[in-house]
Amino acid sequence: MYSNAELVKDCLELFRQTEGDIVDVPEIGETVLFDEPIFGFASAGDGIFETFRRKEVIGANYFGPYEWLPEARSVVALFLPFSEAVRKSNREDKTDPSREWLYARIEGQEFIGKYMAAVKQLFEEKGFKACVPALDERFGIKIEITSKGLRPDFHADSRWSERHAAYACGLGTFGLSRGLISERGMAGRYASIIVSADFEPTPRAYTGIDDYCIKCGVCAKNCPANAISLKHGKNNIKCNKHVETMKKKYSPRYGCGKCQVGVPCEFRAPGKK
Ligand code: SF4
Ligand code: SF4
């Protein structure tokens, strides 16, 4: 028996041991990218994973826990909040991402890849099977382009979604900007692993998909691409175009995240009762 508390303790230890959470480059100096992660758990057999196959949720390309790992028993989701230094830096300019944010998005994602590989190894050393969908060669995103081109709400028909896994694992709900709002807010990155070990599921303290969002519209006001509106939600094409522009400017890094900083849901869940 491997308890939730023992796993969290081991994963936090690994988080401290994995290199890459601190970058030290002349552009930004020594900067911590992420605070310690928080964790949520779901049973692999939870019916919610089946609902993600619906076209209006993720789509038919989606793989459930058993397709990733036939021996699956649990899904463990993590939220890694961006550090105060990263979040604060990105509040300053209203259009361009801060250097710290760019490093947190790109080098930060590399760090998460290394960290999740180490978490997978931890399970395997204990005799369990484990699969990290984001690191699996079957992972991918299929974007449907119709004869009329992409619709503003175009569907990225993904094999797996970290945000949806986190929702299932009780970590939080979606916001107007389509990010997932956890108890530690939205500014950060999500990760997940499917394992053959049993854990106590985290109760979902919500019933609606956006219970933690207070519909304040601040993310819409912050968006330099006018990609978010209270009436229509998020326009993915406008968002992607802006991020592409930033990529041309800051390649090999890219990002934006203005909808995740200077907002009530930056580092807390404003709608949580
Ligand atoms: S800024 Fe306001 S409207 Fe936008 S996601 Fe956060 S809580 Fe919701
Ligand atoms: S990432 Fe930037 S462009 Fe995209 S919705 Fe958020 S603020 Fe707008």
Low-confidence stretches: none
Strand content: 15-25%
Number of domains: 1
Ligand catalogue: iron/sulfur cluster
Query: How many individual β-strands?
Result: 12
**Biggest sheet: strand arrangement:** 3-4-10-5
Q: Measure the end-to-end span.
A: 33 Å
* Biggest sheet architecture: 4 strands, antiparallel
Please give a structural write-up.
This protein is α+β, with helices and mostly antiparallel strands. It has one domain. It contains 8 helices and 12 strands. The strands form 5 sheets. The protein has a 4-stranded antiparallel sheet with strand order 3-4-10-5, sandwiched between helices. Strands 1-2 form a two-stranded antiparallel ribbon. The chain has a two-stranded antiparallel sheet with strand order 6-7. Strand 11 and strand 12 form a beta hairpin. Helix 1 crosses helix 5. The structure holds iron/sulfur cluster (2 copies). The site of one iron/sulfur cluster (SF4) has 14 residues, from helix 8. One iron/sulfur cluster binds next to helix 7.
Task: Write a brief structural summary.
The chain has 273 residues and is an alpha+beta fold.
Descriptive tags:
8 helices; four-stranded antiparallel β-sheet; alpha+beta; globular; binds iron/sulfur cluster; 273 residues; two-stranded antiparallel ribbon
Q: What is the fold's blueprint, element by element?
A:
Elements: H1 4-17, E1 22-25, E2 29-32, E3 38-43, H2 48-51, H3 65-68, E4 74-81, H4 84-92, H5 99-125, E5 130-131, E6 141-143, E7 156-158, H6 162-168, E8 172-174, E9 180-182, E10 188-195, H7 218-222, E11 228-229, E12 233-234, H8 236-250
Antiparallel strand pairs: 1-2, 3-4, 4-10, 5-10, 6-7, 8-9, 11-12
The structure holds iron/sulfur cluster (2 copies).
Residues 175-177, 213-219, 263-265, 270 line the site of one iron/sulfur cluster (SF4).
